[in-house]
Amino acid sequence: MSSKSRKRKKKKLMRKIKKIQKHHRKISLVVTLLAIISFFSFVGTFAWFTSEDDVSNKFEGGKLAAEITEVFIPNNEWEPGEKTTKEVKIANTGTVPAFVRVSLYEFILNFKVDVTDQTGNGNLATASEAKKPGVDRDDTGTWQPAADGDGTFKQGNKFYIADKSWVSDPEARTGMYEYQKERKTAPQKFISLNFPDHIKTAVDPNATGDYWLYSNGYFYYSRPLKPGEKSNEVLSSLTLSDAIPNKYKGSLYKLKVYMDAHDATEPIFSEWRLNQNDPAYQLLKPQLK
After folding, report:
1. Which residue has the higher pLDDT, 115 or 255?
2. C-alpha pair distances (Å), 170 with each of 83, 164, 201
3. Which of 33, 70, 143, 289 is the most core-located residue (most Cβ within 10 A)?
């Protein structure tokens, strides 16, 4: 190999190394976690809960890690007018202080109602066999296609027919729950998310305790959580209205709770897309390293 060829290969290798180093400097110190609260009804409403909360990033010899914790009282027959306890908190399970924020996304799928008996009792229509695209109750990505194509959901030995879906898109950040906004459309208006008193919509320099600041779809904790600390609750419970019509009987409902954690450094603003006019920016800026 000639001297010139060796030099060209060496330069090419150095460019690759620099590119890799530059890429690693850009890795954000962020943790994103997901918990799913699900409610399903036939006659009553059945509920279950799962969480994925062991994601963590290591840096500077420390560990940025947090998880969603809960006090959840399962309600196997969530009937109209009843409240289901669901206290959501965030725990810092790492070794460094962490800012945290939470966002909420709702998903609803209802099924066709049998109107042939003309009694208005809201009994669900059934198919004689399964029809694709089918409904996977744990995968909200199947709900819209099933509703569009009259797909079925199997419960026991019956096949219920999907009718209409209302879905959010957490990846695109669309459909986020909006705190204190009046819910005028059905079926969302029949489901109430109940929050504690320490939720604010503006920075409160006179606050005597910790609080959550709501801004543009996110709930931000008022200060960084220390290692081993747990936040105040951000959500307390859910209530199914006693005015909900029979046509929503048996609907599938999911509330997805997303949590982001970040170390107390300047990149938090670009990572969380916050500008100087955002209340969250004003809350976090004075507390950075």
Report:
1. 255
2. 26, 20, 22
3. 143
Helix (H) or strand (E) holding 160: strand 158-166
CA distance 276 to 274: 7
**How many Å apart are CA 221 and CA 283, to the nearest integer?**
9
Secondary structure (DSSP) of 29-86: -EEEEEEEEEEE-SSS-EEEEEEE---EEEETTEEEEEEEEEEE---TT--TT-EEEE
List the Cα angle 198/223/101 in 5-degree steps.
Answer: 75
DSSP symbols for 91-127: EE-SSS-BEEEEEEEEEEEEE-B--TT-S---PBPEE
The burial class, CB within 10 Å (0-12 / 13-18 / 19+), for 188 is middle
Alpha-carbon distance 127 to 135, whole Å? Answer: 13
Higher-scoring residue by pLDDT: 46, 193: 193
Looking at residue 226, its amino acid is K
More confident residue, 284 or 1: 284
For residue 199, the model assigns a pLDDT of 98
Q: Which residue, 248, 247, 246, 218, is CA-closest to 234?
A: 218
Is the pLDDT at 227 greater than 60, yes or no?
yes
- Residue 286 φ/ψ, nearest 5 degrees: -70, -10
Return the amino acid letter for 174. Answer: T
Does the pTM of the predicted model rise above 0.85? no
Confidence of residue 57 (pLDDT cuts 50, 70, 90): very low
Distance of CA 104 to the CA centre of its chain: 4
Q: Which of 39-53, 214-228, 234-248 has the lowest mean pLDDT?
A: 39-53
- Asked whether 101 and 223 are in contact (CB, 8 A), the reply is no
pLDDT number for residue 240: 87
Query: How sure is the predictor about 52, in pLDDT bands with cuts at 50, 70 and 90?
Result: very low
